[in-house]
C-alpha cells in the first residue's frame, strides 16, 4: 500500500514525500478514503498511530476542492484538541501538509494573549485549530464565526471529556452548520463517546486500529520495584548508568513534577518540568529545549504530556504509576513510535501494586519485574505478599529487558523464583 493508492492530490503527495513517509499507517489507510468520500468518521486511534495526518490530509483535499478566498473570522475547517500543546502540534502538522496548497491555518488556545489571535482571525483563515475554552472566548467576543465550517475534527475526544470539556463542546457544536462533515477521533470508545457520536455524527464509518502500544508493540516494558523514598536516587542512577539522553518522566502531580525536576537538577541532570501551572511560554520553551536536546530530562504530568509528539523518544519513565490505567497506555505511547524502538520503565513502590495490577489487567499481560542491585525494596512487614524473600530475588544489572508473556502476578513471582540460581 502506498499513498498513491489513497486518492490524494499531487500537492499532498509532495508534502508527504517531503516528510519522508513511504507508506500510510493502518489508520491512514482506513480513514483517508472514507473522509475523502465525505463520510462522518468515528475512529479509535491513539497518539503515535499517524492519526493527525490521517484526518489532516483528506481535510485539506476536501477544503481545497471548495476553495474560496479565506473569509475574515469564518474558518471552513475546525479542529478541536484537548490541550494547548496538542493544538500547537496539530497546527504545525496542518501547516506542513498544506505547504503546497493555497490554504492557511492558525491556532488559538488559552494562556497567551488573545489579541494576536484576533488579528490573525481577522486576516482570514481556512483552518482553525483550537482548544475549547479559548474558542468559546472568541465566539463570545464575536471575533470568530463558525457558521461556515464544512469540516469538524474532534481530536482525542475521550481526553476532552476526561478534562470536563463536554459542555464547551456541546456549546461549540450548537453553533456549527448541520450539513458539515464530522470526524471524531478517540483513543477509547467509552459510553460517553458513543453518546456524543450518536448525537453529533451522521451514519459514521467506524474505524478501529489496534493500539500500537499495547499488542504488537515496539515498546519494551519493565517494572523496577523500589521503595518510594529511593525512587529519585534510582532514577538518577539509571539515567547516569545507561547514559540515557532523552528521557520523559511522568509524575502524578504538578508538585511532584516540580520537586523531582529540582532534585534531578541537583543531581547534575539538565531537567525541566511541564505541567498545567506553568505558563504557556514556559511549557513551549521546555518542550522545545527537550526536543533540541538542550534538556535531558523532561518531567511531565499526564495532562501536560497529552499528545506530545516527540519523535523517536527512546525512554519513558513512570516515576509514579497513574491512577487511571488507560493513562499508562497513553504515557508509553510517547515511545516506540513510527517503527522506532522504545523502552517504558516503571518505578513501582509497594503501595502502587494495586495500580500495577489494574494496568496489567488492561494490557492483558504481566509486565516483567527487574530488581536493581542496591535499590531493592526494604524487607516487607510480616504477612505482606508483594515481594518474594530478598535472598531469592534475582539481581540483574540493567540488562536484557524483555517483555514477558501473559500471566498473573502470582505466575510472575513463580517465574522469578524459578530463575533464581
Ligand atoms: P500522530 O499519531 O499523528 O501523533 O503521529 C505520530 C508520528 O508519526 C508523527 O511524528 C508523524 O510525523 C509520524 N507519521 C505520520 N504518518 C506517518 C507515515 N505514514 N509514515 C511515517 N511516519 C508517520
TrEMBL record:
Every Helicase C-terminal domain range: 218-378
Compositional bias annotation for Basic residues: 408-421
Gene3D superfamilies hit by this protein: P-loop containing nucleotide triphosphate hydrolases
Cellular component terms (Gene Ontology): cytosol
EC top class named in words: hydrolase
Source organism superkingdom: Bacteria
A GO molecular function held by the record: hydrolase activity
Alphabetic keyword roster: ATP-binding, Cytoplasm, Helicase, Hydrolase, Nucleotide-binding
Family: Belongs to the DEAD box helicase family.
Protein's name in the database: RNA helicase
